[in-house]
Design a protein that fits this description.
The chain is an all-alpha fold and 178 residues long. It has one domain: Heme Oxygenase, Chain A (Up-down Bundle), CATH 1.20.910.10. The protein is 77% helix and 0% strand. The protein has seven helices and no strands. The longest helix is centred in the N-terminal third of the chain and has 27 residues. The termini are close together. It comes from Zea mays. Pfam families: TENA_THI-4. InterPro entries: Haem_Oase-like_multi-hlx, Thiaminase-2/PQQC, Thiamine_Salvage_TenA. This is Thiaminase3.
Length: 178
């Protein structure tokens, strides 16, 4: 059961809100439409996790975040700070989404030995539609970083690396659960 993933997604909603707040201050309003396109899927994700919890008999209200999840939560909450630029925030958003898409997309490629019980999950986040969404986010990131000052680019690079570190911790946590 992905109870830790559910807790992450709930925290991710607040992070996306912080990205949207920063986006509102940008001149290009098309970014907001793209980001909002992903928000609707987050609602579906939360419903999916709740349904899975019911199937597995897990009371999500009684689940507490584990250490790796708490570290990720702290990182995501840091983006509410006004001094973090939109370029850094949207880069972080793109990185998180792309890690999920690439990971689950790999699982559904021909020749991979993904257990049948995981195929539905892999197809959910490895889909062509989600890949296209991530590519749209990448276009936003590319544009933002091309116009960003050097310190913002460096901060975006640091955030990128930090997301990868947090993802490794999260996946390690997930794979160690019974």
């Amino acid at each position: 059961m992905q109870s830790q993933d559910y807790l992450f997604v709930r925290e991710f909603v607040a992070f996306i809100a912080s990205v949207l707040l920063k986006c509102c201050k940008q001149e290009d309003s098309s970014d907001m439409e793209i980001i909002l396109g992903g928000v609707a899927s987050i609602s579906d994700e939360i419903s999916w996790f709740k349904n899975e919890a019911t199937v597995w008999g897990v009371d999500l209200a009684s689940v507490s975040p584990l250490k790796a999840n708490l570290e990720y939560h702290r990182f995501l909450r840091s983006f509410t700070e006004p001094e973090i630029s939109y370029a850094v925030a949207v880069t972080t958003f793109w990185t998180i989404e792309t890690v999920y898409q690439d990971s689950f997309g790999f699982c559904i490629q021909d020749g991979n030995k993904t257990p049948p019980e995981l195929l539905g999950t892999c197809q959910r986040w490895g889909s062509a539609g989600f890949r296209q969404y991530c590519q749209s986010l990448q276009s936003i990131v590319d544009r933002c970083l091309a116009n960003a000052p050097a310190d913002a680019v460096q901060s975006a690079e640091e955030a990128f690396v930090r997301v990868l570190e947090l993802e490794i911790g999260f996946w390690d946590m997930s794979s160690s659960r019974s």
